[in-house]
């Protein structure tokens, strides 16, 4: 085999590019642009009509481009043309590229060398594509130079080139839409929300969900060492395509499970007419092993519970990892519609990372499998963007009591030495059902007593009052254990973990049930 020019291109800081605005159209348009510059733009430059069937194309997913060129001229054309094309088509989107020439077959060392070159390129500061003039008007939302064009609405006049490109992508591209909407009865003829103002009522809560696969990097290392030692490029290509398809399949299966009955019931209630054309969710990212979604808060927990299960099952159908598949973790940020999307998404991502970190610590005790889990938080006060802020503000108490009962796992952990320390998503759901039942029973005022106990139990000076409130709730031992309500003492040596804060949160969103 002759010389191979191994090309790598990576879109950088994708989430930052998408979430620079709180306008839903621009958020979605930003995601569509990332898909476009990864899956379409390189091949428009190369004039390749069917890149998916081209054996030189190894990967075009999740902001990554990998092509094994056999012709130096084609590789040079892409290197010279793609950065400028991205700056023109998607202003503000960071992009790094590198080429590693290989004599003969591509192996693991060559692949790692390309990754090293890309990491070096990412550390180089990219010059802005357009800086404007000193006297130019700046966009109030981004601080970038304003680009005015005829036909924009008055309130949209002062926007930058990136925002214009995102709006155009929202109107003219539909890759994300095709991934997001299953072709089944109930979804046909419906539209995804175009703005939050018309979609969400004033008193409703939104959920921003971010889910990410576990241990993908370690899985790739294992595949290189065990299965990709010979002729690796077709195998990498197939794995990348299979993972992309598994994520899409898991997403669509989950959407059907969570929303289809509701949509069909709406259709039946209107005598078969789809008077309400709006879908109850809006996908932001579906690529690689990542998913970002906006939906109403009451749907968030059922969605994540189903998606984590469906993702693991779908990845078990990937030939290269059919013995184990992959698991995923998720973070849910519950906010009001006017809460800055950038901060809500950053919080969801931070919650997801905290869940992943906790799950990875249990990998050895779970036979090498990283268990699937989730963290969630409802933002009711000041802006928060990270799990560390939550740990400081909400979970810590002055005594041996912790309200950080998460992450919540999709299944009971089989190892005896950890099973008593962690809760499952089903535990959380059953606790919420129990609290809802108690609220509707003759035990009037239990909701206010729960709030009082949560407040009083945080301070060592009010433990007596907390125990008095616990006694007034008149719950039996089994109910107290399920809800995480304890009789507390300053003499307690062992830390007690209570899910009550999360259970109470679930029961207080929109005053609507968020569990099935």
CATH architectural label of the largest domain: 2-Layer Sandwich
Overall number of strands = 12
**Uncertain parts:** none
Rounded to an integer in angstroms, the radius of gyration calculated over CA atoms is 25 Å
Shape verdict:
globular
Q: Please state the average pLDDT score.
A: 86
The largest β sheet comes out as:
6 strands, mixed
**SS summary, helix count:** 19
Describe the structure.
By secondary structure, this protein is α+β, with helices and mostly antiparallel strands. The protein has 3 domains: 1-125, Reverse transcriptase/Diguanylate cyclase domain (Alpha-Beta Plaits), CATH 3.30.70; 180-395, Reverse transcriptase/Diguanylate cyclase domain (Alpha-Beta Plaits), CATH 3.30.70; 416-506. It has 19 helices and 12 strands. The chain has helices at 14-18, 24-39, 41-46, 72-89, 108-122, 161-172, 175-180, 196-199, 216-226, 232-269, 300-315, 341-361, 387-395, 416-419, 425-440, 446-456, 463-472, 477-483, 500-506, and strands spanning 3-12, 57-61, 64-69, 94-103, 205-213, 281-287, 290-296, 328-336, 373-378, 401-402, 408-409, 496-497. The strands form 3 sheets. It has a 6-stranded mixed sheet. Helix 12 (341-361) links the parallel strand 8 (328-336) and strand 9 (373-378). Helix 2 (24-39) crosses helix 6 (161-172). The radius of gyration is 25 Å and the shape is globular. The relative contact order is 0.09. The model has no long low-confidence stretch (mean pLDDT 86).
